[in-house]
Design goal:
Low-confidence stretches: none
Order of helices and strands: HHHHHH
Shape: globular
Distance between the termini: 35 Å
Mean pLDDT: 95
Number of strands: 0
Length: about 170
């Protein structure tokens, strides 16, 4: 399921590229596009997808005796998740500065969009080709089933958590 989620995350990359091309041709950054992209990365890619990786898979793997290669990759993936969060936060900040009239922030918007364009495909490839499949050897079928069920419960909670936050942001 985590690899299936990657396919959706990959679909935002062409949209990010299109926004960069538009800006580099002299267009203004689209604040609505950036807000939606930030929401996608924060809610889906990070809280939902990375949340399941960190709160379920990595938690369970930390209870296993991992070989040094898997331990190293898992630590790298956790660091990469932090990098993704920082980049998304910086993108939102640059968008806000640009909207406040700070035109120099346009360059930062482009930089952060390009960082995400480069980051996610590499990160996904590392997980898909060098970690997820090979890490399944640490688990019994029963353990895999339990993680899958926990992932389903995690997803069900996320939609409620997301919209509770939306209502709070609307002051209700």
């Amino acid at each position: 399921p985590l690899m299936i989620e990657h396919r959706l995350i990959e679909r935002i990359i062409p949209a990010l590229k299109h926004e960069v091309e538009s800006i580099e041709k002299g267009g203004e950054p689209d604040p609505v596009f950036i807000e939606k992209a930030v929401d996608f990365f924060r809610t889906y890619a990070d809280r939902t997808h990375h949340g399941k990786e960190e709160d379920i898979l990595f938690r369970e793997l930390s209870e296993k005796k991992l070989n040094p290669k898997h331990k190293k990759i898992m630590d790298e993936l956790i660091d990469e998740h932090r990098t993704g969060r920082k980049t998304v936060k910086a993108l939102l900040k640059a968008k806000e500065l640009n909207q406040a009239g700070r035109k120099e922030a346009v360059a930062d918007i482009v930089t952060h969009l390009k960082s995400l364009i480069e980051f996610y495909p590499r990160h996904i490839e590392k997980e898909d080709k060098h970690f997820f499949i090979s890490c399944m050897e640490y688990f019994s079928d029963e353990e895999k089933d339990a993680m899958l069920e926990e992932s389903f419960r995690f997803d069900r909670r996320m939609i409620h958590e997301h919209y509770e936050t939306v209502i709070e942001e609307l002051g209700q």
